[in-house]
Design goal:
206 residues, single chain
Length: 206
Amino acid sequence: MHIIYTLPGYLFAILLLDGLGKTILPESERDSFFLRISFGVIAFSIVLTMLGFLNLLNQKVILILACGVYILLLPTIKSNLLNYFNIKPHFSLLLLLISAYVVLVHINAFTPPLSRDALNYHLYLPKMYLKQNSIITISNNIYSFFPAYWEVFYTFLLTISNDITAKLFHALFFILTISLIIQILKLLKPGLRKIDTYCAVLIFIS
């Protein structure tokens, strides 16, 4: 039941952010899933931060905002979905090793959050923001003095799902970092062999 509750929220957030990122990016950059998701997170976090300063950072407002944006972006989201199914996978031993590691990271994301960072600010602060309907400072928590977009963004994930979805987004950005490494290598050295990029990724994840 926990997975059934978590995955729809995770997929909803990905589709929403992907569509939002595609809308705000220049046309020349819209093919990059990494950039679409990243700029979607940035744009949504800025809006949530403004809601926090206006004392409107509550679950009802966030849900209305998310559903409204989703409806407006439906044509873009539908286009992105069709593009997902047109991706042609490339199989190799190194890619399988990387994929296996990524799967393990996602499986680990389904475990309860017990890390110090999560309990002190990554998940604790967003829950306090939602409880107070605002971005607040806590005298004994230094991290609350400079609220990060990432923690503010987690108010959205906690609203539509739960803390596991937040951990899954951490895993997603691990994948996006891998994608960024590959893109940087291609820019630095055009014509680089795929096996070289896979080796670089293996070095990173090890």
